[in-house]
Amino acid sequence: MESGDYLVRGMVGTRLKPIDLKLVDITLDRLFEKLGVPHSGEDLFARNVARGRDHGIASYTTYRQFCGLGQAANFDDLRNAMPDEAIESFRQVYASVHDIDLYVGGLAEKVLPGALVGPTLACIIAFQFLNSKRGDRFWYENKEAGFSYVQLHAIRSTASFANIMCENMAENFDHSIPPQALRLPCNRKNPLIPCSRLHKLDLNLWAEKPTFLPKPCTYMSTVYRPGAPVSVSPCLACVCHADGKVGGERGAWRVSNLLQCKPVHRGCEYPGLDEYCKLFCDEGVYRN
């Protein structure tokens, strides 16, 4: 298992190659190649094009129109969507712009900012994920899944791909991994941290008799769910704390047993200062 761990950790820190029409040689004419048998391999690119045609997938321009990206009457209409080099290659291969295969046209598109694919493939992928989510009545956020609000809150606040990787790697090492595991490590925005520092999912919330149940907060006769913001003062940012504890962070203030608050800088000249604002000013917590 340890060798697999090193492989996964290496992939986390390796920059992905750009997605375009340039494929590595091993996938061109050498796919499933038989050892010692020349010219026995296949072409992955040609295979994918053939798959699309066998399944009757519509053309690239049809999906562009479906995604609201406008109609393309000729090859020149694609100049904003893909490089000129790709367009000129398509002129030589396809008789009409409407003959471009979806797989080929999608790979040729200029990628969206911060994405790996262009607008047409991004639209199709997003649409498919949305349908999968809405069409599955047992999707974890749907009522049929049976999760309580507290359980959903725990999943949303702790579940991550980084956690999944850490939970499945060898236990005798405290591996380091970026919190956003699908993004490259970055000292400032996505630093490598030990797995032990990642927040763990509290499985006690799924026990038949949980050892701990987060309490709601009551303030001024109003009940707040754990994690919900609570309006106390214009000079305080308060949250209903799920575990009923007031954090020991510097600058944290305690209004009630279940609220965690921090001063909000309003300035001592702010009109309508209440008791908390005046307290901060008197103690010099902040000044204009």
From TrEMBL:
<dbReference type="GO" id="GO:0005576">
    <property type="term" value="C:extracellular region"/>
</dbReference>
<keyword id="KW-0964">Secreted</keyword>
<dbReference type="InterPro" id="IPR037120">
    <property type="entry name" value="Haem_peroxidase_sf_animal"/>
</dbReference>
<dbReference type="GO" id="GO:0004601">
    <property type="term" value="F:peroxidase activity"/>
</dbReference>
<keyword id="KW-0575">Peroxidase</keyword>
<dbReference type="GO" id="GO:0006979">
    <property type="term" value="P:response to oxidative stress"/>
</dbReference>
<dbReference type="InterPro" id="IPR010255">
    <property type="entry name" value="Haem_peroxidase_sf"/>
</dbReference>
<keyword id="KW-0560">Oxidoreductase</keyword>
<protein>
    <submittedName>
        <fullName>Peroxidase</fullName>
    </submittedName>
</protein>
<dbReference type="InterPro" id="IPR019791">
    <property type="entry name" value="Haem_peroxidase_animal"/>
</dbReference>
<dbReference type="Pfam" id="PF03098">
    <property type="entry name" value="An_peroxidase"/>
</dbReference>
<keyword id="KW-0325">Glycoprotein</keyword>
<dbReference type="GO" id="GO:0020037">
    <property type="term" value="F:heme binding"/>
</dbReference>
